[in-house]
Write a structure and sequence with these properties.
GO molecular function: glycosyltransferase activity
Shape: elongated
Protein name: O-fucosyltransferase family protein
Mean pLDDT: 75
Number of helices: 13
Family: Belongs to the glycosyltransferase GT106 family.
InterPro entries: AtOFT1-like, GDP-Fuc_O-FucTrfase
Low-confidence stretches: 1-26, 44-70, 263-268, 416-455
Pfam family, one: O-FucT
Oligomer: single chain
Distance between the termini: 64 Å
Length: 455
């Protein structure tokens, strides 16, 4: 029904009747003034009262506008309302991104995210072979809720009262399922009557493949709340200690040799190390070749030699130094990964370092989490800008720079780092002036420039 049209018709009818009854006096000044006052009062009633009710509705706590510019204006998370998502799959950092996207979806719906299952194994095609693993086996559940309190909330299935059955939200797919349609669907499910269901269950594709509606800073905030459980953190500490112990032995031996000829006086030994995410495994080479063909870019796949050349051109590097190679050994086909490095660069992978037993007792996901932490703690990190593993390490290291007050490093505004472009720049170096991304970060608040293309 068109209420505006109906109201206008009634008003015209009443006015005509009134004019017919008052015909003899309608030319008087008093009558004209009287009509004018009546019209003003009627218009005020029709216009101002509905406007007032609209303004009041907009101030209700459950009424908000979605978008990154007002992401911090969302109301406090409602109690007793939950969001359930499918099992999160693929690599460690794909899973972290998917988890953060699920958290932000729950935040948009003003709900608590039910603790999702992660995937301990790595299968891209055979989804039925994925080995589920509880979130709290990798990350600290209570610590997450403490650090992200008021922003997002993680809940347990035991908190559900089961008063109502779950409402299914089926994610669309295909080219026709646009970002706008996805946002409209989420908006619809945030409103009555859908919002009254205790549990909304999203069915369909993996959260990593959902459309994205949030700024990088929201993802970064969630990543900061992801703290590894003590068992995994302690294993990473064991690996870092072994790296530093090896570096100390090398430098101690060198110092002893130099002191014997009086060229160096005794001093404390500090053993910084470089961590290189050496993405040359067979699964990556297949993926990056396909990506190069689709993107018409020829500098995504880096060979072992290219990576070694770029590490060798890090400026201000003190040698000798340990180079820890973060590589998925089970997927590595090139066994010569330790050969051919520049003088003073001492490459170590898990077996040569003597920490294979630390990794070998765990499934893929935990191995990756240990390597992530070892790279995060490195004095210098070198990664591949097309890898989510490298990108999230750079993002987290950059966040630490920003928290410490550093906003500019090597002439680059560190606030430009994000999930897909990590300080990309055009660089011309001795290896040929290829276009690449600078992803080499120091803990000493400076980024070391490398010569060459993306690494």
């Amino acid at each position: 029904m068109n209420y505006k049209g109906s109201g206008s018709s009634s008003f015209d009818s009443v006015s005509c009747k009134f004019l017919r009854l008052s015909g003899p006096h309608m030319n008087s000044i008093f009558f004209r003034c009287f009509c004018l006052v009546c019209m003003v009062l009627i218009l005020r009633a029709l216009v101002l009262y509905p406007l007032s009710s609209i303004l009041t509705f907009q101030q209700k706590p459950l009424d908000w506008v979605y978008g990154s510019s007002v992401s911090n204006s969302l109301p406090e998370i409602r109690k007793g309302k939950f969001l359930e998502v499918p099992q999160i799959v693929w690599g460690l950092n794909n899973q972290k991104i998917a988890f953060a996207r699920a958290c932000l979806t729950a935040r948009m719906l003003n709900r608590t995210l039910l603790m999702p299952s992660l995937s301990a194994s790595l299968f891209y095609k055979e989804v039925e072979l994925l080995e589920p693993i509880a979130f709290e086996k990798i990350f600290q559940f209570d610590r997450f809720n403490t650090l992200c309190s008021g922003f997002v909330q993680l809940g347990r299935y035991s908190e559900i009262s089961n008063k109502t059955g779950p409402l299914e939200l089926r994610k669309g797919s295909g080219r026709r399922w646009t970002v706008e349609r996805d946002l409209d669907q989420l908006t619809e499910f945030s409103q009555i009557p859908m919002s009254e269901y205790e549990v909304i269950r999203i069915v369909g594709k993996n959260p990593f493949l959902w459309h994205d509606h949030w700024p990088v800073k929201d993802y970064a905030r969630i990543f900061e709340c992801l703290v590894l459980v003590d068992e995994i953190s302690n294993e990473a500490t064991r690996v870092v200690s072994k790296i530093q112990e090896t570096g100390n032995k090398v430098k101690s031996k060198l110092q002893t040799q130099q002191q014997s000829i009086g060229s160096m006086n005794s001093s404390g030994i500090h053993s910084p190390y470089i961590a290189v995410h050496m993405r040359i495994e067979k699964d990556w080479m297949i993926h990056c070749k396909n990506l190069e063909q689709r993107s018409n870019i020829s500098q995504i796949c880096s060979s072992k030699k290219e990576i070694m050349d770029r590490v060798a051109h890090i400026t201000g590097l003190q040698r000798p130094t340990i180079v820890y190679l973060a590589v998925a050994d089970s997927l590595l086909e090139d066994e010569s990964v330790l050969d051919g490095w520049d003088e003073g660069l001492l490459p170590y992978e898990k077996k040569r370092l003597g920490v294979w037993d630390v990794y070998n007792r765990y499934p893929y996901l935990i191995k990756s989490a240990i390597d992530y932490e070892v790279c995060l703690r490195a004095d210098i990190f070198v990664g591949n800008s097309f890898s989510t593993f490298s990108s999230l390490i750079v993002l987290e290291r950059t966040q630490k720079l920003m928290r410490s007050g550093v906003t500019d490093s090597c002439g680059i505004d560190v606030s430009y780092f994000n999930l897909s472009e990590t300080s990309c720049s055009d660089m011309t170096g001795s290896t040929g002036g290829n276009r690449g991304c600078e992803m080499c970060l120091c803990s000493g608040h400076t980024m070391k420039r490398t010569k060459g293309a993306a690494h």
